[in-house]
Request: fold
Amino acid sequence: MTEKTASTVESEGVQLSPFMFALVLAPLTIGLPAWGIVWIAALAEVSGGLGLLVFIAIPAVATVLGAPTYLFLGGPAFWFALQRGLSVPLTALSTNFASLPLVAAFFAVQSSQFQIGTMLWLYAILGSVFAPLWGVIFVSLYNRFRKA
Reply:
């Protein structure tokens, strides 16, 4: 018998509604508050703590940059991981690195606007932090929604 941890779910069959709600809400639990703080600071014209403001903006930017690959590649990967009782945060991290060629192709098409190497490093570093974090939040939300 396998032990149930915070990063895995017993495979009794994946339930679609809790899965979709958790998938969409996981990155928003970090991204929306960050966007709110940045927006309020911009309205208040905060100038003194610009370094802190940039630090707070990182989750907001990560949500925007990572949302397409998180939803379209992470969603099926999470479904697969849940069905087999695998660790969702590790699946999220590996999916992030597996998506780098697709991201490189996107930035190559947009090459007049982006420096491909810099954007790939930014994407890889932010993804290494936020993909597993969103995976943990996803599992927590999914378990909560399943029990509700």
User: Anything to note?
Assistant: The helical segments are 16-43, 50-84, 88-98, 100-109, 116-147. DSSP finds five helices and no strands in the chain.
